[in-house]
């Protein structure tokens, strides 16, 4: 289940990516220079599509969709499922032979955009207005909409329904505030079962920061890690940890909150919509309910995670690449991808049908209306990796001290 940690997995490879980006210098520049003159390059060369797949289902779905487009367009295209997406993408640019189309995360956009490796094609898309605004913002750098959001995921609260019922709780007890979450977490903590579990990382705890009214960076990208709101969020999480009603997944012997929930070691977890596939595959008999994360002092909040379809500026066939991306982000293809490997459609036109087909997961899609993304500045992934190491000891550490260090690291990033 790589998808549930895809943003952080990319972060772990940031050093490799940074070295490769440096090696790229000003990026891969085609002699035809198509995009610089406002015209797209065009050739008869086959397209190469590099993806970072979550597993066979995703690889098969993308390969099938690309093959269908190739058949109808007459342009050959080959899908390559990377074993290490960030590394292979960086190596392609360094060698001057990048894939034409590829998965690109929010954490690597700034690096490739700043060195001229990417085609900023977002405003050329016929379906530009169909993408969720928050996702468009995630893939906008220096005022340019670079690439089409491929799909996305958000975090919400997932409840083990059997444990909930056994505790005598009803739908009226579903927490809508932090205080209520603390109350039900205490009631659900019994014996070897903890009320709430999740990974001790920004990609889960960060949701509480958004609910408090902040994030690691502001809407315009300025560092806000040590804001009073973020201190309040970590202080709240620390209290849950010290009260024993929250335990990190690794501390109950599981890899993530979904596993803790499915194994019966936690009654609630903060996870993404990928939990559906995780539970159905590993714990098919577990009954669960997904509800919106409780509102914090500033209201509703959550984090969203997404990749886009990047197009290399040096591609000899940018025109065909753009047409392929437009096809892969149609309502039809988005719904097919969602059904195949559990992602949320990035286009609003797919929402109504998706909700009718996935009624138990509606809170995740609704989160698109208020979700925030992890920081996208060049080098931010390294900062988050360091932040995660500090969050591991949150129960015995000072929240402001942790956040002051993160603030300092964010401020040190290149502008």
Mind sketching the topology for me?
Layout: H1 6-12, H2 14-24, E1 47-51, H3 56-73, E2 77-81, H4 85-94, E3 101-105, H5 106-114, H6 133-138, E4 140-141, E5 144-145, E6 148-160, H7 161-166, H8 178-188, E7 194-198, H9 202-212, H10 228-242, E8 246-248, H11 257-262, E9 266-272, H12 275-282, E10 288-291, E11 304-311, H13 318-328, H14 331-341, H15 351-357, H16 362-366, H17 380-391, H18 399-411
Parallel strand pairs: 1-2, 1-3, 7-8, 7-9
Antiparallel strand pairs: 3-11, 4-5, 6-9, 6-10, 6-11
Question: Which descriptors apply to this entry?
Answer:
415 residues, alpha/beta, D-Maltodextrin-Binding Protein, domain 2, 2 domains, nine-stranded mixed β-sheet, 11 strands, disordered N terminus
Structure in words:
It is a single chain. Mean pLDDT is 91; it is low at 1-37. The strands form 2 sheets. Strands 1, 2, 3, 6, 7, 8, 9, 10 and 11 form a 9-stranded mixed beta sheet that branches. This protein has 18 helices and 11 strands. The chain has helices spanning 6-12, 14-24, 56-73, 85-94, 106-114, 133-138, 161-166, 178-188, 202-212, 228-242, 257-262, 275-282, 318-328, 331-341, 351-357, 362-366, 380-391, 399-411, and strands spanning 47-51, 77-81, 101-105, 140-141, 144-145, 148-160, 194-198, 246-248, 266-272, 288-291, 304-311. With 415 residues, it is of the alpha/beta class. Helix 1 (6-12) crosses helix 17, helix 2 (14-24) runs parallel beside helix 4 and helix 3 (56-73) runs antiparallel to helix 14. The chain folds into 2 domains: 2-153 and 305-369, 3-Layer(aba) Sandwich (D-Maltodextrin-Binding Protein, domain 2), CATH 3.40.190.10; 154-303 and 376-411, D-Maltodextrin-Binding Protein, domain 2.
């Amino acid at each position: 289940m790589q998808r549930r940690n895809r943003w952080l997995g990319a972060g772990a490879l940031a050093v490799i990516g940074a070295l490769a980006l440096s090696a790229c210098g000003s990026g891969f520049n085609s002699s035809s220079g198509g995009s610089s003159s406002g015209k797209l390059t065009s050739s008869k060369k086959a397209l190469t599509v590099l993806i970072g797949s979550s597993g066979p289902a995703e690889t098969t779905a993308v390969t099938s969709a690309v093959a269908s487009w190739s058949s109808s367009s007459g342009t050959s295209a080959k899908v390559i499922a990377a074993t290490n997406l960030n590394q292979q993408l960086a190596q392609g640019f360094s060698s001057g032979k990048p894939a034409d189309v590829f998965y690109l995360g929010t954490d690597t956009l700034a690096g490739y955009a700043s060195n001229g490796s990417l085609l900023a094609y977002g405003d050329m898309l016929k379906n530009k207005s169909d993408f969720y605004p928050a996702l468009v913002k995630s893939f906008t750098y220096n005022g340019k909409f670079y690439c089409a959001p491929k799909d996305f995921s958000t975090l919400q609260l997932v409840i083990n329904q059997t444990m909930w019922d056994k505790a005598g709780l009803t739908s009226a007890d579903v927490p809508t505030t932090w205080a209520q979450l603390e109350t039900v977490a205490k009631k659900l903590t019994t014996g070897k079962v903890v009320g709430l579990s999740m990974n001790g990382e920004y990609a889960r705890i960060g949701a509480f920061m958004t609910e408090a009214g902040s994030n690691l960076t502001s809407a315009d990208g300025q560092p806000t890690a040590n804001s009073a709101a973020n201190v309040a969020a970590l202080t709240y999480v620390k209290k849950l940890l010290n009260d024993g009603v929250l335990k990190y997944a690794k501390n109950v012997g599981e890899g993530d909150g979904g596993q803790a929930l499915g194994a019966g070691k936690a009654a609630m977890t903060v996870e993404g919509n990928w939990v559906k596939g995780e539970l159905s595959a590993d714990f098919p008999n577990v009954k669960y309910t997904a509800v919106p994360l409780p509102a914090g002092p500033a209201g509703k909040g959550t984090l969203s995670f997404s990749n886009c379809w990047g197009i290399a500026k040096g591609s000899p066939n940018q025109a065909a690449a753009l047409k392929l991306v437009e096809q892969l982000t149609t309502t039809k293809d988005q719904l097919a991808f969602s059904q195949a490997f559990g992602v949320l459609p990035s286009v609003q036109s797919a929402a109504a049908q998706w909700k009718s087909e996935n009624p138990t997961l509606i809170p995740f899609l609704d989160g698109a209306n208020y979700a925030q993304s992890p920081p996208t500045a060049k080098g931010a992934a390294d900062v988050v990796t360091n932040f995660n190491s500090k969050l591991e000891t949150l129960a015995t550490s000072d929240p402001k001290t942790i956040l002051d260090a993160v603030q300092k690291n964010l401020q040190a990033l290149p502008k």
